[in-house]
Amino acid sequence: MGDIAFNLLIFFVILARAEDDSHLQWVPAEAAELQSAGHAQVSVLVDTDNKLYLNGQEVGISQLSGSIEEKLGDAPSGERVVLVKVHRDTTAVRFEPIIEAVSQAGGDLVHIVEEKRP
User: Fold this and answer.
1) Which H or E run contains 72?
2) What is the DSSP string of 17-33?
3) pTM
4) Is 45 left (phi over 0), alpha (psi -120 to 50) or beta?
5) Local confidence pLDDT in tens for the 118 residues of the chain
6) Do residues 103 and 109 make contact, with C-beta atoms less than 8 angstroms apart?
7) Measured between alpha carbons, how far is 64 from 69 in angstroms, rounded to an integer?
8) In this structure, are residues 90 and 98 in contact, taking their beta carbons and an 8 Å threshold?
């Protein structure tokens, strides 16, 4: 019985990572004195080719707010974290509408950056 439970646990962990964006290429911006972002259900990424992705799936900016709101569901405040990963060379013209879409969806925006190292 323990083996079955273990196998089911592994199965669900693998399924939970189905919307992975680790295959996308981007270089984060750098900042000093960073804090951990914690766990998030939603990840928005702008890659090196300036393409927009939501949880690893390419989307248009017009679809972003509704899609984020759908993925966040009825999560309470404080659990509506949206990770925003923007390539370091992306201009404000590209990422400002993303920030607005996260805000419209009621998400708590967390910008992912790397810590500056001497």
Assistant:
1) helix 61-72
2) TSS--TTS-----EESS
3) 0.65
4) beta
5) 666 766 666 665 655 544 555 666 666 655 555 555 567 788 888 888 889 999 889 999 999 999 999 988 888 877 888 888 888 888 888 889 998 999 899 888 776 655 555 5
6) yes
7) 9
8) no
